[in-house]
């Protein structure tokens, strides 16, 4: 049984699958739902967190990203996640200790749509190709399944606005069920 009053949710997936948008909209939905609004929900965008807290060893020009200092990142996040009510958003998941996370959502997107999204972001060709191959090979999904208990890993499609709306509704219902099981005051399904 978790020692937290509220769950921590990890939203992960290949870059371009909609993690940040999902996380922001989920926090908004949880803050406005009467059964979950008593918590102060926080979106933790790990990419931004790495920059803000200096959890890196510098910028990698070839990949146009920060070289993450994983030990420093985990030390900084240890403090943040303890209270629960966090929606953590990052492109990988196997770094986070299992005890921190109550639900892992792996967003998926058709690879041709993903390619177009990454081009629109201005990614370099090598980065587009690597991310597209990762999506086709289900790298993030496999990492999640290897790193966490099967019952907390949920694969969700993220290709159109309706997918996001349905995903958010399912997750809010799951949080309500989690609270009923561990926090003692909400009802709902326990499967997102």
From TrEMBL:
Tell me which Pfam families the record gives: AAA_18
EC number(s) per UniProt?
2.7.4.3
Catalysed transformations (reactions): ATP + H2O = ADP + phosphate + H(+); AMP + ATP = 2 ADP
Instruction: Outline the segment boundaries, as ranges, of region: NMPbind.
Output: 45-68
Query: Mostly located where?
Result: cytoplasm
Gene3D superfamilies per record: P-loop containing nucleotide triphosphate hydrolases
Top EC category: transferase
Keyword terms, alphabetized: ATP-binding, Cytoplasm, Kinase, Nucleotide-binding, Nucleus, Ribosome biogenesis, rRNA processing, Transferase
Signal peptide residues are none
- Sequence positions that bind ATP: 16, 18-21, 121, 160
**Which segments carry the region annotation LID?**
120-130
Q: Which GO terms describe its cellular component?
A: cytoplasm; nucleus
Quick one: a GO biological-process term for this protein?
rRNA processing
What GO molecular functions are on record for this protein?
Answer: AMP kinase activity; ATP binding; ATP hydrolysis activity
InterPro entries assigned to the protein according to its UniProt record, in alphabetical order: Adenyl_kinase_AK6, P-loop_NTPase
Where would you find this protein in the cell? Cytoplasm; Nucleus
Assembly notes: Interacts with small ribosomal subunit protein uS11. Not a structural component of 43S pre-ribosomes, but transiently interacts with them by binding to uS11.
Family indicated by similarity = Belongs to the adenylate kinase family. AK6 subfamily.
State the function annotated in the UniProt record.
Answer: Broad-specificity nucleoside monophosphate (NMP) kinase that catalyzes the reversible transfer of the terminal phosphate group between nucleoside triphosphates and monophosphates. Has also ATPase activity. Involved in the late cytoplasmic maturation steps of the 40S ribosomal particles, specifically 18S rRNA maturation. While NMP activity is not required for ribosome maturation, ATPase activity is. Associates transiently with small ribosomal subunit protein uS11. ATP hydrolysis breaks the interaction with uS11.
Identify this protein by name.
Adenylate kinase isoenzyme 6 homolog
């Amino acid at each position: 049984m978790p020692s937290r009053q509220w769950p921590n949710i990890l939203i992960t997936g290949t870059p371009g699958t909609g993690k940040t948008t999902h996380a922001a909209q989920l926090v908004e939905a949880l803050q406005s739902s009467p059964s979950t609004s008593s918590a102060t929900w926080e979106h933790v965008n790990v990419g931004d967190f790495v920059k803000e807290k200096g959890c890196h060893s510098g910028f990698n020009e070839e990949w146009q990203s920060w070289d993450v200092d994983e030990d420093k990142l985990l030390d900084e996040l240890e403090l943040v996640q303890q209270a629960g009510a966090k929606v953590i958003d990052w492109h990988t998941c196997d770094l986070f200790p299992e005890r921190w996370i109550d639900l892992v959502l792996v967003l998926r997107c058709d690879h041709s749509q993903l390619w177009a999204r990454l081009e629109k972001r201005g990614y370099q060709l090598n980065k587009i190709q690597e991310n597209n191959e990762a999506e086709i090979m289900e790298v993030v999904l496999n990492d999640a399944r290897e790193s966490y208990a099967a019952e907390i890993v949920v694969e969700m499609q993220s290709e159109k606005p309706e997918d996001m709306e349905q995903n958010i509704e399912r997750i809010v219902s799951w949080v309500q069920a989690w609270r009923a099981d561990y926090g003692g005051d909400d009802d709902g399904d326990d499967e997102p």
